[in-house]
Each structure stands twice: as structure tokens, then as C-alpha cells.
Amino acid sequence: MLTEPRKTVRHFLVALAVMLIVGLPSTLLAQEAQPPDPVLEDKLELGKRVYFKRCVWCHGVEGGGDGPSADRLFTRPRNFIQGTFKIRWTDSGELPLDRNLIDTVKNGLPGSAMPPWGEVLSNEEIVSVIQFVKTLVQDRDFADEDEEVYVQDFGKNPWGTTGPYHLGVPQEDIDAGKEVFLQNKCFECHGGEGRGDGNPTMKDDWGFPIFAADWQQCWNFRGSRRNHYDPFNVVRTISTGLNGTPMPNFKDKITIEDRWKLAAFVNALCPRKKIDKLTNKPVPDFLIQSRFTEGPVSTDLSDPMWQAPDDDPGIKSRPDGYTGKEDQKWHYVAMAGQITRGDRNFKPKVDNLWVMSNWSEEEQAVYYLVEFHNRFLSIDPAYPDGVAMQWPGQLEDLFGAEKPYFIYGDSKKPVDVWKANFMVKNYNDTNAPEPNGYDLDVSVQEQVGRGFDAITEKETAGGVQVVNSKYHQGRVKIMFKRSLKTENPDKTDVQIPVQTFVPVSFLQWSGWDKEHDEHMAISTWYYTILVPPDPASMLYMPPILGVAFFGFQMWLVWMTKRTRRMAAEGKVK
Amino acid sequence: MNNVVKGIILYVVGWAAFHYGLFPQMQPKEFSWVANRYVYFLLFVAYCIGFNLVLKLKPPIALNGLAVWLMGLYFYKAVLYPPIPWTLLITYMMLWTIGTFLYISQDPVTFAEFRKPIVKTVIGDYKIARIITFIALPVLVMGATYKSLQPRFEEPVELRTVHPAPPATTKVHGKSYTLEGLQNPFRTDEQDNYVDGGPGGSALPIEGKFPFLDADKHEYMKAVTEGGTIFFENCHYCHGDQLNGLGMFSHVFNPTPANFIDPGTIAMLRESFLFWRVSKGGPGLPNESTPWSSAMPPWEEHLKTEEIWKVILFEYWYTGWHPRTFDEESSSGGGE
Fold it and tell me: Per the domain annotation, does B102 fall within a domain?
């Protein structure tokens, strides 16, 4: 006879054995090869109809990625013929699962022209169109017996962080992720700080140039499935590689635990900003606030007055030991190719700028620090890099919301352009990451625009200076300075008043891509304002009003008591 | 007192259950007479009245007044659709506050009942409440004064006319066109017979009429194909691969690019209006439409006249809309 506890133990052991026998093969099988999802023939007709209405324009009649739009897109549309699909759960080089393709169609590929189709097409249409896409693959066959796919197990998010911002990963895991980053030499392509500035010579499987991802702009991660800060996306990419690109898989080189830590490191680099779900981009800061300083403004980039994290302070609070101004921030300025007039630029390499500003009462001058990511800068002096601020030349003559035309003004309303042209000193685009950054050779050009084809040098310059500049691990930093008022003999310099909304816009040229003149990147009109100092009344008015209100309360008490007393005495009802 | 606590709990829990549980269910994408936000609000009101009656809570008038006032705020802020600007919200809430006050002071008994806790606080019968309010209120006044004196700046709001009145004539590539009566020369398949319902209800081309595939068999599809080709070489950066105004550059520009799927754009415009807008672009707009910030190119600089017409044809084909035509009932309204 067995005693009760022993019985329990035996039952337990039997249960365990059964679980092992039943469970082990199935867990093993999950890692086993399986045939790819076959083409569902009955869906093909609908799929073909969807394809020839929606997809053919970019992916082409035969799926060769050669539709009408292809030549004017950087990151060309995918060529389906070889069966190479980027975003998968299967091993590197293998065909994708149907659900991977469905997710790609539904959510689109941020940072490219592929939009999310989930709101436009029905589920059935999406399932059908990917069946048709599978038939466009010529070099491989989803029904081939030799084709096998291994579906990877990515494990679970070890920190249990949640969207949209996935904050709260412990710093030691992020630091451990950085170690993995260094050991595996990710910087060779992605650059020393992950801005994708490592290797300018890469090509995709079809011989077209391709760049490594900029981790500090994670809203452009292709497989982010509109969940831009989720470390899972990074784990999947590290584990499966990106077929057709130089991105290999690290499934066997890095353990799954370390892959999650590496993903946490990659994600920690990306500024937390509010992302617009419709466009997959951060929401621009349309008002650039210039902070007041009584004395002179420092030109030292490490000075506290130029400190602010990239993150939105409403999302990620200032880090411990933050010494900068409490209200200082980086303003996000969205950029696009100038595709409106003249020589159009369909493939801009810079799609945003970060702008910060201070102004000094003593110097009567305003400073704008303009920074942006550019993977490679020009090594050809014929095509220097450039960035410019564009202002209404005659602000005082504008009425209401009126502004000059946003591309170099118009014949009636000129623009004042402050342009910094620069070459990097001792730089080659193939250099290894340089932690100290590079100095720039900057020359300032002041121009008057009366139309994109009527740009002239100013006869009398307004004294714009670039007082500091740097190129650091893929990030360009240019600090402009100008006095608020100028001599202005030709009425072409903007005169910047305090506490007034002044239109401003930005232009940028990538010399590496031979951008010049109106072949550039451009922003729309933003506003900037020189924020006045806090008024002295902020110090004395609140106590005065507080005391006055307290007095009013006392009067209310006295009145109420008097009324009740009079009621009690029968003088009033 | 116990009833008051019970009532407050039922209000809060009920609101949370209704707002987070039922409200999302009651907002289907398609219109419905039953499942819509206003029916939802009526249900919520019925719940609030219901539990008070069923449980015989007999709440004090102060709680009733508060509930009525908050219900109005909830309606104007969250239920009413489309959302109203805050200036209008303040106006509505002022009226609602007056209404609530009328309800409270409907007769001297309820008014006295409403006043009672306030008077007791003021004269000191509720000692702790008096200390708290008499200290907290001046502190709040101080804080509000400080905040209102701090200089704060928001991006100025600028209004613009999206579809301005078109001119009578326009000159494109040296040729003058009268917009009134101007037709798309490629609209050979006049009456929408290229559209069927298709699964999922979207407008798909009927069997045998596809861009590229049927371009050599149908003159109409040939023009659509060529128009689409031009669109996807030039226009999709802003107006989007789906023609919904969400192209890869769309977020950069302000005003944002037009959404052709929306019934308020090409669906209610004439093709001649589009011809003028496409040819002359942003710089061709009148001042009320902020020509200085529109990124729309004057396409006559980049495209031939016939290419412009083909792109317009494609936009109608893709979206399934039919242009506003020159028949009698619609010809009076100009191009707005």
C-alpha cells in the first residue's frame, strides 16, 4: 500500500511522463522543417484582379519590381520573380509564410512607398492577392517538394514592455545589448551610433545601391507593423535576416536572450516621439520656439542651454542629472524631396531635421542649431553638402497669413536664404566610425530668392554666421547666428521681431547624391517665435490675487453668518 | 449618506463600463439606426435614471445636479460627433450650466437643500471641509494666475479655401480653354460601366478591363493605363499609392495633399476644374487658398495637355467616382 503523499507523487510522475511523451515531439516538430504554404488556386482570380488594380503600378506586370514608379523610388519596389521576401518568420533565404505576406500587405513597409492596405482591401482580397503574388515567383515554387521552411521561435519579450513606446527595459540589459552590438560588429554597416553610416558601397541582390537602417529613426523600420518601438521587430530581423539585402541572420551566432538585449539597445537609440499612424512618421513641431537668454548665448554644443533629449518630454521624462533648460526641446521638421518645380528630386536622403534655438537680449541676436542625419557626406568639392534656412525677405510687408512661395519665393515676395555650404575635413565615406566626429569646412552664402529660377547673391550680406559645426557619427550639426536687425539697405534681410510668429522653412542638399540648386530636400513653412522672458508680474501677481481671494472668502463667511443671525432674530425671512 | 456613496460608485463604475465597454461597440463603420453614439448616450442616461429609481436611492439634489452637469459635459466632449472646437464647447457648457442651475433652483425646497452643505461649509459646521476649501481655493487661484501670466505660444491656426472658384478660362501650353463645358477628350466610356461591386464592395474593374492587360484591346483602358503610369511616376509621392492623400511625402506638406477617395474632392468636382487645378498647381491658386505653401506643381511645366487629361481619367477610374457633369441640376453651382 502506498501512503497518500506517495500516491500523489506517483500520479504526478505519470502525468509528467505522459506530458513528455505527448509534448516533446510536438515542440520538436515546431522547429522542424515544414513545406511552404501552398498557393490557394481558388483565390487566384480575385487576387489577379486586385493585383492589376492596386499593385501593378509599382511591382510591374510580371512582378519584376519594374512598374512605372520604380525608377523614381529609392528602395525600389520588390522584384517578386526570385521569391526573396524581406519580412519573414522563416530562416534566412527561405520562402515566407502566408501570414508574413498578409502582415506586410496589411501594414505596409514604413520608410518606403509601400502603404498599409489593411484599411483599403478586405481580408479576402489581401489573402487572394498574396496568392497571386506567389504565382509571380518564377525562380522558386511554393509547391516544390525540396522547398522547406523552418519557422523560428523568437521567444517572448523578457521585460513585458508594452506599446506604443515600450519603455522600462532595465539599463543593464540595454548595456549588455551594446556589448552584443560591438562583438558582432554591427557598426560595420549600421555605424558607430546606429545611424546607418557604416558602409556606402552595399548593393542588393539585383545590384541596386542600398543603405543600412538608421536605428535612430525606427519609424522607418520596414517590418515595424505600425508598432514602431516594439523590440520584437528588431529580434525578428536579427534572427531571419532580410532576404535580398546584405542584412544576414544572426540566429546561430547570437543566443535568443542576447538578441532581445541587442534589440533593446537598438530601440533605446530611437527617440520617443508621437508617431502618426496614418503616415508612419513623427508628428512635426510646426512652431519652433527660441528660448530667451539675458546674457550671451554659448556656441558650445555641450553647454546646458543647447541640451535637450531627442525624446518628447511628455513621453519620456528628462533623464536623471539633466542640466539643460527645462523648456528647451528639439523640434522635429519633416523634409521631402523638392518635387514641384524645375529639376525635381524624387530620392532625397534626408527626411527630417532637428532644430533648437536660443536668442540673446544682450547680443540682440538669434541662434538656430540645425541637426540632421545623413549617412554619407560629400567627398567631391564640386558638390558640397548644404543646409539653409529660408525667411520672408520683407516680413513687414506681409499681410495676415501671407508668405512668399515656399520654393525660393516669388517675384512679388522675395525670400532671404541663409545657406551653409560645407565639406568635411579629413573625411572619406569609407572611414571606420570616428567617435570624436569631424570638423566641417563651412562657408555661408546669403541669397535672395524671387522664384526657383531667380536666385541671386545678396549685394550686402546681413551678417549671418555659422558659429559652430560638426559631423558626428552620421549626424550633421550646424549652428546659425544672426543679429535680430540688420542695416538692410536692399530690403531683403528678414528683420526678426520678438514675440511675433515669423515664417521659416528649411532646405537641404546632400552632396554625396550630387544634389544642388532646386534639386534638394525641402520643408513647408514653419513658424518660429522669439519667446519673451517671463514677465516680472509672474512673481507678485499670484500672491496678491491669492490674498484677495482669501479676503473675499472671509467676507462671504461674515455675510453668511450675518444673514443667519438676522434670520434667527426674525429681521429677514 | 450611505446612499450617496452607493450612488457615486454606481455612477463611476457604470460610466466606465459604458464608456470603455459599450461605446466602442456602438460605433460601427457603417451607419445604423440602432447601434450609434446617440442611442448609446440614451442608454447611458436610462441606466443612470434606472439605478436611482430601482434602488430607491433618492439622491440629494446636489448629487443630482452634479450628475446632470457632468452628463452634459460628457455628451458635448465625447459623444457628439463631429467633435466641436473648445470655444463652442465652452458656450454650450455655459448654457448647460444655466440649465442645471434652473433645475436645482426649480423650487425653494430643492434650492435650500442644495445650499445646505455649502452654507454649512462656509459657517464652519463642517470644520475640515471648511479648512480644506478655504486654503485650497486661494492656492488654486495663485496657481492659475501664475500659469496664465506665463508666456505660452501655440502654432497659429490658418484657414484656407480648399476648392476655390475657378477662373472662366485658363491658358495651358499656349492654348486657351473655356472651363465651362470643357470635357475630358479621353472619357470615351462615358457611364461608369467599368465598375462592378466586387467582393468586399469596392469598385473593381469588371472582368476583361484592366490597366496594362487590356490596354491594347480597349481604347479607354489604354488611356487609363497611360494616366496611371503618369500618376505613379509623378503624383503618388503626395497623393499616395491609394490616392488617399497619404503618399510618402504627404506628412511634410501643409496644406496636406488632397484625398481623392474622400467624397468631398474629385467626386464633387468637374473634370474641367481638375484640369485647371492640375495645370496651374499651387502658384495658380487665389490668395484665400494659400498659394505660397501648396506643394502642387503647375503640371503644365512637366506634362503635356493630353497627359494631364489622362491622369484625371485615371483618378476617376481608380476611385470609382464619376465627375460632376454639366447636366441642368448641377450646372448652377460653379466649381466649389
Answer: yes
Chain B: give the shortest CA distance to residue A491, in Å.
20
Answer yes or no: do B285 and B208 share one domain.
yes
Give me the residue from A50, A120, A401 closest to B158, CB to CB.
A401
Cross-chain residue pair B237–A550, CB shorter than 8 Å:
no
Q: What is the DSSP string of A185-230?
A: TTHHHH-TTSSS-S-TT-B-TTS-B-----GGGGGG-TT-TT-TT-
Task: Tell whether B177 and B97 lie within a shared domain.
Answer: no
Q: Which of A52, A113, A523 sits opposite B212 (nearest CB)?
A: A52
**Least CB-CB distance to B232: which of A67, A344, A524?**
A67
Number of Cβ pairs < 8 A linking chain A and chain B: 190
Kindly state whether residue B335 falls inside one of the protein's structural domains.
no
In this predicted structure, the answer to whether residue B190 has a pLDDT above a threshold of 80 is: no
DSSP state of A400: T
CA distance A60 to B63: 67
Give the DSSP letter of residue B18: I
Inter-residue contact B299 to B279 (CB < 8 Å):
yes
Total tally of structural domains belonging to chain B: 2
Q: Which residue of B has its CA nearest to A400?
A: B158
pLDDT in tens, B23-68: 988 887 777 888 889 999 999 999 999 999 999 888 888 889 999 9
Which residue segment(s) compose the domain that B64 sits in?
2-106
Can you tell me the mean pLDDT for A282-287?
Answer: 94
For all residues of chain A together, what is the average pLDDT? 91
Clarify whether residues B173 and B300 are in a common domain.
yes
Write down the ipTM of this complex. 0.89
Same domain, residue pair B16 and B90:
yes
- Return the pLDDT at A29: 47
Q: Please provide the average confidence, as pLDDT, over all residues in chain B.
A: 86
